[in-house]
Amino acid sequence: MIKSPCIGVCEIDPVNNFCKGCGRTIHQITNWTIYTEKEKRDIIANLKENPRKLKINS
Are the beta carbons of 47 and 24 closer than 8 angstroms? Predict the structure, then answer.
């Protein structure tokens, strides 16, 4: 089972619409439980290749 990349810093940046903690979109966060294992792996791989994480204080 693939775990959520959530790190407990759940704050959506209003400018880019990505979570400041995990880098996912709100759509990816809310649909995480219904994604297939492949979809979850793809999302995590994309986060690692194209990090969207922002500094918390930015």
Answer: yes
